[in-house]
Write a structure and sequence with these properties.
The chain is of the alpha/beta class and about 350 residues long. The protein has two domains: about 150 residues, TPP-binding domain (Rossmann fold); about 180 residues, Thiamin diphosphate (ThDP)-binding fold, Pyr/PP domains (Rossmann fold). It contains 14 helices and twelve strands. Strands 3-2-1-4-5-6 form a six-stranded parallel β-sheet, with helices on both faces. A six-stranded parallel β-sheet has the order 8-7-9-10-12-11, with helices on both faces. Helix 1 crosses helix 5, helix 3 packs parallel to helix 5 and helix 7 crosses helix 14.
């Protein structure tokens, strides 16, 4: 029944969650997408479960997401969720009303949470995808719809329009530096196959998730159902322990440093050569609407600190970057130094830029 719905759909979208990563099911997900010629997105938690350099990739969608995610979800008729709880959280793009929704997850407690479901499959993502591949091949043949380039061309067009819209921010030479320029440089300068990247909560998450292209499973650690500022620093250290040969990077804001920054010393003491990129705009952006009185009376939105000097005192190599032209070279230097086992901290002085890639309808 699910295979029939997918084969007969006019505009299917595959909606992949972190269950794909847990099941190590990326090869099967790619094969099913190619057989169906189905555009494929991931949640923030599932980011890196489908290679974002694939021609059918829409990118990730959470609190923010690519324009491709927003457009293709809006215009879809069938949405197939694999390895996802389909919960309405900061880590999952909303599914528009009026869609035929199929959910496959390993935990039956995650079923029927937010959206009316047409069909349900309870099972491990790798096993479910493998069975669906065989069912689709029975209906479409061994090559499926691989020769059809119409969907690929549509994705390419939307991506080009979206990037053209954002390029003034991504390539901005203004100072204070745009946080999007920082993300742009990370995306351009890291070897994706040999890197693990994670964000922190709040604006850094919302700025990096759409624009950093994860191409290898576990090459990105996406999280965000909750907002423990500073968690990304620990995740980067854990990634370095798990993958000592890889460049492990966390992007965090200045308020997150106030919560967890003394653990730069932990990284130095344990010779964990991670790279921490701090986007320091001197503000706790995004929270003022929740604490208007404290913001007005006590200036709780605004914070100060010299975090490069702090990190250096705790044993890290550190740089204080104010010139947008120096962001890329600083990342290159940090890659070399972190490979020796010394953690690196790049404090980049940015402007507050509460403009986000959100195209949900």
């Amino acid at each position: 029944r699910v295979a029939e719905l997918l084969v007969n759909a006019r505009r299917p979208v595959i909606y992949a969650g972190q269950g794909v990563l847990y099941a190590e099911a990326t090869p099967e997900l790619v094969e099913l997408a190619e057989l169906l010629n189905a555009p494929t997105m991931t949640t923030t938690l599932g980011k890196s479960g489908f290679p974002e350099n694939h021609s059918l990739a829409l990118g990730a969608g959470g609190n923010t997401g690519t324009r491709m995610v927003g457009d293709f979800l809006a215009n879809s008729d069938v949405v197939f969720g694999i390895g996802t709880s389909f919960q309405k959280t900061l880590a999952a793009a909303p599914v528009p009303t009026g869609k035929t929704v199929i959910q496959s997850t390993i935990d039956e407690k995650d079923l029927n949470g937010e959206y009316p479901l047409e069909e349900i499959i309870v099972g491990d993502a790798k096993l479910v995808l493998g069975q669906l591949i065989e069912e689709v091949k029975d209906r479409l043949g061994p090559e499926g719809r691989r020769g059809d380039q119409s969907v690929v061309e549509e994705i390419r067009r939307v991506r080009q329009e979206w990037l053209a819209e954002w390029m003034p921010r991504l390539s901005s030479n203004d100072a204070p530096i745009s946080p999007y320029r920082v993300v742009y440089e990370l995306n351009a300068r890291l070897d994706k196959a040999n890197s693990v990247v994670t964000h922190d909560s709040g604006n850094p998450r919302d700025q990096i998730v759409p624009f950093y292209a994860a191409t290898t499973p576990r090459g990105y650690i996406g999280w965000g159902n909750s907002t423990q500022l500073g968690s990304g620093l620990g995740y980067a250290m854990g990634a370095k322990i798990a993958f000592p040969e890889k460049t492990c990077v966390n992007l965090m804001g200045d308020v997150a440093v106030g919560m967890a920054g003394t653990d730069f010393e932990t990284a130095a003491r344990e010779n964990l050569g991670i790279i921490t990129v701090i986007v320091n705009n001197g503000a706790m952006g995004g929270y003022e609407k929740n604490i208007p009185i404290a913001t007005e009376r006590y200036g709780t939105k605004y914070v100060t600190g010299e975090y490069a000097r702090m990190a250096e005192a705790l044993g890290a190599y550190a740089e204080h970057v104010t010139d947008p032209a120096e962001v890329g070279p600083a990342i290159e230097r940090a890659k070399e130094i972190s490979a020796t086992g010394q953690p690196c901290v790049l404090e980049i002085i940015t402007r507050e830029e509460p403009v986000f890639s959100q195209y949900y309808r």
